[in-house]
Structure formats: structure tokens, C-alpha cells
Design goal:
Elements: H1 3-23, H2 27-30, H3 40-43, H4 47-63, H5 70-91, H6 108-121, H7 123-128, H8 132-144, H9 155-168, H10 175-187, E1 189-191, E2 194-195, H11 206-222, H12 227-250, H13 272-279, H14 289-304, H15 354-357, H16 364-369
Antiparallel strand pairs: 1-2
């Protein structure tokens, strides 16, 4: 199996249970709700939207990829159709799988934002080619999330992302929510490619899960609407390049990375920012696309192949390397885990792109531990 074929097999294994069941309007019936025992009923109110928003956020660039042929194009067309049917089922108030976009709790803001980020990454498939009825329902879902008050941390980017998605759809959007999120994160920048998650620094992967990919996507859509925002674009990109270097260096010669901080059950979703920089051809010069492919592939293979990663029906289980339910915080449930799909963003590059076409090569940690005399690492 080629490396791309392996990544595609991972995509299908992760996506199939969610999209096929939701397209059939049976997701709430078929998807289990694994969570901390005292949190199952609470998380059941949010988990289905988590699965949809996070999954589509990761596979959206592939769903919209043109120029494919053969079996992969057939697969892409199938999943693009399933994604559109899933959006219909999730946003139709008459559907048994109609989701909570802001009626209960704060959590819906998070996953409406991931859904909005997916829309930005595949606007033709996930917006323009939808029937008008589904478009109206999707807009209602985005707007409903405004009922959810963000916490004073990375959650501000969720509010900004929803507004960026509304702008992409040509609907009224709130500049203040965007401006507040961008300005606060500028104040929370700590140096050397790292933002605080709010006023304090946390050792975790939220710079990759949320903060930096959403900063890049929001600025890509609205950055030219205000001179202050436009001035942020280059520094934000420079910081993201540095953080991509850090993430690549975290990957050990064995294809592991430090299981540090909260939400590690998102598994290889911890590499979201590295995957995004590869997709956008914005990797820094010191790391090649091929070494990122090989490093990320080693991590993905190690995690996917760990016994217990999936249950007997193909749903992801709580864990980092296999089934480790004690690693799940109180906000973690089955749907949360589908943020791992964001590591699959480079499938949105064609097979001829250097990311896929260049010969395999070792990544930084593997080269250093083999004794290669590489240049020293430097802060920015």
C-alpha cells in the first residue's frame, strides 16, 4: 500500500461510521456515547455535532480536491455526497438527527466553529453546491451558536470562526467578535511561536488543535477587511511556521510524540497545525514536505494500529494509544475524538504534489538521533 493509499484508508475508516449513519439519519441511534460515567447524559447533548464538525474540518480539503481519477475520485465523490446528505440531516429541524447548535450549553459553539472551518476549507462542496433549503438551515445553525458565550481563552477563536463562515456565505457577520478574538490573541502571544490559552500558558496542544489554524483561516477570509487585521497576517504566519517546526521536532524516531497536556485523546489531531501548513505550502524551509509526510505517517500508523483504537463497530474509543478511558477529561466523549481527522488535511493536495510525490526521507529527530550533523535550532 502506498503512503497516500494508507492515509486514504485511515480517512475512510474514521469517516465511514459518522457520515454513512448520519446521511441515513441514524447517527443518534447508532453512535455510542463513551464518556466519563457521570458525564454520559450531559455529553450526549453535544457529541454528535462534535463528530460531524471535527470530521469535516479535517477531510474538507480532500472532499473539494479536483484533478483526481480512478478509485480515489470515485471515493471522493461518494464521500462528498455523504457529507452533503449529512449536513442536511444534521441541520433539518424535522430530522431525527437534528443537532444542538446552541439550544443547550456552551459546547455547541466549539463544534459549530469547526463546522464553519470545514465550510471555509471546502466552500463549493459544503456550501455553494447545497440546495437552498439546506443552505438556509446551515445559516440558522451558524447563527444559533451565537447563543453560546465563549470562555476567555482559545474559545474566542470559535466565535470569530463562526463569523468568518457567515461572511464566506455572504451573510451578515459581526466584526466585533472577530476583532475581539484577534486582538486578544495578539496580547496572549508569548514568543517563539506560542500563544497562551488565555492569559496563562498551558503545556498542551491547543496552539495546534485550535488557536493557530483558526487564526490563519479567519485572517485568510477577513484579513483584508481592516488594516489592523491585515497587519496581523504576516506575524501570525511567521509564528505558525515556527510552531510547525516545533511540532515536527516533537515527533520521535519511533513515530511518537509527548503525551502532554489536556485533550491528548484527540490523538494525531495534535498535529493539526503541521498538517495545515503542509496543505497550504507554508512549511518553513528547514523542513521538507516529504519529511513531514513520513513523520506524520509514522505517528498515524502507530496510533491507528494500536489495539482498541476502534470498537467492534468501527467507532473511535477514548485513548491516546489504544483504549485508555482514564485519559478522557470530563468534556471528552466519542464525538470529541474525531478531531484526529485534522491531521489528514494533506490529502487535499494532489498525488503529484511534492508532499506525496517526493521520495521518503527521515524527519528531524530521526536524523539527529542517527548522528547527522544538522544545523542548530533557533527561536524566532
Amino acid at each position: 500500500m502506498s503512503e497516500r493509499a494508507f492515509w486514504l484508508a485511515v480517512l475512510e475508516r474514521i469517516a465511514a461510521p459518522v457520515l454513512t449513519n448520519l446521511a441515513a439519519r441514524q447517527l443518534k441511534v447508532k453512535m455510542p456515547v463513551e464518556a466519563q460515567p457521570h458525564k454520559v447524559d450531559e455529553r450526549a447533548q453535544f457529541t454528535h455535532l462534535e463528530a460531524l464538525g471535527r470530521l469535516l474540518c479535517g477531510i474538507a480539503p480532500w472532499l473539494s480536491l479536483s484533478g483526481l481519477s480512478g478509485e480515489e475520485e470515485t471515493l471522493r465523490q461518494r464521500y462528498a455526497k455523504l457529507a452533503q446528505e449529512a449536513l442536511d440531516a444534521a441541520t433539518d429541524p424535522a430530522s431525527p438527527d437534528f443537532m444542538n447548535f446552541g439550544r443547550i450549553g456552551r459546547q455547541p459553539l466549539v463544534d459549530v466553529a469547526f463546522l464553519g472551518q470545514a465550510l471555509l476549507r471546502a466552500p463549493d462542496i459544503l456550501w455553494r453546491n447545497l440546495p437552498a433549503r439546506v443552505q438556509d438551515n446551515l445559516i440558522s445553525a451558524l447563527e444559533m451558536s451565537r447563543n453560546c458565550q465563549p470562555y476567555f481563552c482559545n474559545w474566542l477563536m470559535f466565535s470569530a470562526m463562526v463569523e468568518a463562515a457567515l461572511k464566506e456565505c455572504g451573510r451578515p457577520w459581526d466584526r466585533v467578535r472577530v476583532d475581539y478574538a484577534l486582538r486578544q490573541h495578539e496580547q496572549w502571544y508569548l514568543g517563539d511561536g506560542i500563544y497562551g490559552d488565555g492569559p496563562q500558558f498551558h503545556w498542551d496542544y491547543y496552539n495546534s488543535f485550535v488557536i493557530q489554524p483558526m487564526l490563519l483561516d479567519v485572517l485568510r477570509v477577513v484579513g483584508d477587511e481592516d488594516p489592523t487585521w491585515a497587519a496581523m497576517k504576516e506575524p501570525v504566519l511567521t509564528r505558525a511556521r515556527r510552531y510547525a517546526v516545533i511540532l515536527e521536532r516533537f515527533i520521535s524516531p519511533e513515530g511518537t510524540f509527548p503525551p502532554i497536556g489536556r485533550s491528548i485523546t484527540y490523538r494525531f489531531g495534535s498535529l493539526h497545525l503541521l498538517a495545515y501548513m503542509a496543505l497550504m505550502h507554508e512549511l518553513p524551509s528547514e523542513i521538507s514536505p516529504a519529511q513531514v509526510r513520513c513523520a506524520m505517517g509514522a505517528v498515524i500508523r502507530r496510533m491507528i494500529d494500536a489495539p482498541g483504537t476502534f470498537d467492534e463497530h468501527g467507532w473511535l474509543t477514548i485513548g491516546f494509544c489504544g483504549h485508555q478511558p482514564n485519559l478522557g477529561e470530563g468534556y471528552i466523549s466519542t464525538g470529541s475524538l474525531y478531531l484526529c481527522a485534522t491531521a489528514l488535511l494533506p490529502l487535499g493536495l494532489t498525488p503529484a504534489d511534492p508532499f506525496w510525490a517526493d521520495p521518503p526521507c527521515d524527519w528531524t529527530a530521526k536524523r539527529i538521533w542517527k548522528g547527522e550533523n544538522l544545523p542548530a535550532d533557533h527561536a524566532i
